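Page 47, continued from p. 46.
Same chain as before, 436 aa.
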Amino acid sequence: MLKRKITKALIEWKNEENKQCLLVRGARQVGKTYIIEQFCKENYESYIYINFELSPTLKDIFNGDLDANTLIMKLEVTFPDIEIKPGKTVLFLDEIQSCPNARVALKSFAMDKRIDVIASGSLLGLYYKEITSYPVGYEKIIDMYPLDFEEFLWAVGIKENLISKMKKCFENKTPIDEYILAQLNKQFRMFLIVGGMPRIVDEYVKEKSLGKVMNLQKSMIEDYKLDVVKYAETSIRQKVLNTFDSIPSQLSKKNKKFSYVNILGESNIGERKYSSSIEWLKNAGIINYCYNLTEPAAPLKANLRLDCFKIYVRDTGLLMSMYEEGIQKDILDDKLYINEGAILENVCAEEIQTRYNNIMYYEKKSQLEIDFILNIDGVVTAIEVKSGNNKQSKSLNSIVNNYRTVSRYIKLEKDTNIYVDNLGIEHYPLFMIMFI
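Result:
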């Protein structure tokens, strides 16, 4: 069983005194069902599971009156072998996007408080028009992502006390033992290839076969495309597929700003035609947006440019599988140069998304670009991700010298240990993005 950080959030939710219903969002195959089922079985005396896609007839429970008494009586009739015990029973509503009335009913369950309710969904953003009344104030929403690098390290057997020591080195800005540094760099390269989708990580841990890993990744990409065909409106279906297929080439450009022209290489393609297809991928949990800032100044959200952004795939392993074959071997052999910047930026965006509401960057007139800007504990921080052997940081140096709104500077790079240079720029190995 893969250890996941979200389990702690589930336990904290269960222990809340006046808890709301819990809604867990995430892309397909990030492990929502497995983790929630394990949590329910281990923390409650009785447990009712409904998957609205596998058992569509059970949607009828949520037809008609949606008051708690009626709903609980319907559950008792439907599941006669399961005793509903106030405070000791949990109801798990899986793929709730397929039953909009069940989403409405969360308010009744939350007000009644006899049973705890957890819902999960993969395509929630695509069904918002079908929900007659959102249970605002009665549901707590948390997002679930693929495994981050720390969870990947747990999966491959790296002890938590070693990770804690590495975190202290990060916090104290002290160098890491060179042997340990080399081993963690090796694991990070493997993480780039395998990614964080639970089924794929589990396969890698058990079999250590990259061939099987890559086959599973390609299969998962095809599953995502089938979801587009199944769930996207006919008018945007092909546009969504074209947009998705264009992401690797979009990220391989020197200027990684998303360009509608680059979807098919046609000059007449614009935002009006393709913006809904990008939003579909975002709502399905497949991509991350990284917005440009007008200025790298707090509050950062006030400076977002919603019309200027980069797009990253939410799982870097899946992005790798979208490139040509052989790129995985180049990563292992440390010989990748052309697309490495795109891949390293993608994995950093993936890690940032698990801990921050927005991913942001700063670019000015194509002359100055900082890969990521974050507000870390009230400090505006510029982060540069460096691939290859080019150690120059013209953009980061310019930020240090010319932007007083930025107070901290971080450079993540290959083949380095931890140190702080004479400009105050903190240098870390790439894998330490997991501590930011």
